[in-house]
Amino acid sequence: VLLMFVLLIADYTVRQLTTDSFQEKADRIYVLGTEEWIGSAYKLSDDLVARYPEIEAVCAYSAYYNPAVEIEGVKSTVKAAFVDSCFFDLFSFKLIEGSYDNALESKESVIVTESFAKKTWGSEDPMGKSIKFTSEEDGVPHDRVITGVMQDIDNSVVQKETEILLRADNLKQYNASLGKDNYNNAAGVILFILARENADLLSKREDMKTFFKEFYWIYRRGAAQEVTLTPLRKVIFSDLMSYQGLNHNNKSFVYILMAVGIAILLFAIVNYINLTVATITVFYQSLRAANTNPAIAIRS
Question: Is the pTM of this model over 0.90?
């Protein structure tokens, strides 16, 4: 039983400490935020790419929506994440079906996870099938076509509960403030920034702050004072708030849990050694009591 607890604790802590370690470009991906929260206005992504040659791409991400859908006449809701078309340029999530180059090429494109596909269509191939989404803004249904099937998300700050990826262009159908025509929602999306190789993006934070003060209302009005660029692998333990469904944990808690696991393991080892020594001692004492040569008794 103790060993089972140790294995469970070890699995949990190792997974937390290695979150997003499989991402091939993890050392070049940052998340934009302020000194208090991770999150940005969607429109800001274009401004960043236009101003900073150090940036290769910016991918918006938002995942706190459960849109109503209709699939082959059956109505339900799904756990959706809205992402830009460059999503797979940044992240190393595996596509089981579809092409990385054009899976999110169109606004009408939808990518489903492997478990969602099996739950919904069983062994039937979901590629090319249609899902009808109903806009929360105007109640109008919109058909979206499945252009890819991806492996279930795991061990990432991106929510593992995600069932469907939609283009971020569709966000405005669910929240009018999330468009690229204004900066109103300053925490409406997560902006994942991919820096070019060998580029020193962190050195641009002061320039970004000065730049944002020219037009970005949270800096012009003093609601934000600093620009933060959190490396992808540090997001899981970041103290900054996130409103967009990124996975988060407390590093101190993980280390405490690890220490507890090590203590339990050491206790189990010491206990095992004590039991083994006690068993051997009792065995030899019983042989002496019977006036038996231990070596002979063992050979027999």
Answer: no
